[in-house]
Each structure stands twice: as structure tokens, then as C-alpha cells.
Amino acid sequence: VEAPSVSTKKNISDISTDLRPNASASDPSQSEHQRSEQLATLHQKEQNVFSGLPPLESNVACNVIHQYISTTSSFLNSFIADTNASHGGIDHKLTVLEKQMALLESKIASIPDLMPEEKESDEVSSAEEHKMEGNEIGDKGQKESDN
């Protein structure tokens, strides 16, 4: 298998520049039409560049594909291992933080007159609940007397 010539490499780099999106197209249909024209031009350039090259031998193509799959799976495995380790570290930090928060909350709760507003609001809400229960009982009594 022959290595591509310098002119072939240059033509391949020219092909990749044709794939850049054009920011000047504002109409979606115009942009779509322009994109299809770019793809047609790209296809024509590929035909010109690669028509002179012989196809890859099957064992070479299989080796390239195998190498790509092996490299990709190795990357994904290492990425998953790294994310799992990071997740484990974050989980440990959250557990420590939860324990520290529980300890801090218990220390704050042990101070008797730290937040008197809460006691007053608890007493008010208890009185309101008691009052509402009384109204419900009164309403039931009224309904029974109406029947």
C-alpha cells in the first residue's frame, strides 16, 4: 500500500475546510440548500482525490477497525473508572458533611433561648390548631342540630 502523496494530503485538508458552517446564511432553507451544495462539492473533491488510490486490503482495514475499537473501549473503561472514583470521593465528602451538619444542629438545638421566635410561633400555631378543632366541633354540632 502506497503512502498518500503530498498533493493528496493537501487536497484532503482542502476537503475538511469545506465542512465549516457558513454563518452568513440566515434563512434555514437557504442554509440547507447551501449545505447540500457543500456536500456535493465535497463528494466531488473526494472522488478526485481518492479515485487514483487503490482500495485498502481487507486485513489492513480490519486491523484499523480493530485498533479503533480497542482504543475507544480502553478510553471508555478508564473514563468510567475515573468517574466512579470521583463519585466515591464526593459521596464520602457528602457523608462527612451530613454528619457535621447533624452535630452542629444538635449543638444549636441544645442552646435553650437561642431562637425564642420559634417557640412563640409554635405556641401560636398550636393555639390556631386548637381553635380550628373547636370550630370543626362547633360546625358538626350545628349541622346535627339543623338535621
DSSP E strands, number: 0
Distance between the termini: 103 Å
Question: Uncertain spans, ≥5 residues at pLDDT below 50?
Answer: none
- Number of alpha- plus pi-helical segments: 4
Rg, Cα atoms, Å: 37 Å
What is the typical, i.e. mean, pLDDT?
77
> SSE order in H/E notation?
HHHH
What is the percent of helical residues? over 70%
Proportion of residues in extended strands? under 5%
Oligomer: single chain
Shape: elongated
**What about the largest sheet?**
none
Fill in the keyword field for this structure.
single chain; 147 residues; 4 helices; 80% helix
Can you walk me through this structure?
The chain has 147 residues and is mainly alpha-helical. The chain is built from four helices and no strands.
Short description:
Helices cover 80% and strands 0% of the residues. It is an all-alpha fold.
How are the elements arranged and paired?
Blueprint: H1 6-17, H2 28-50, H3 58-109, H4 116-146
Helix pairs in contact: 1-2
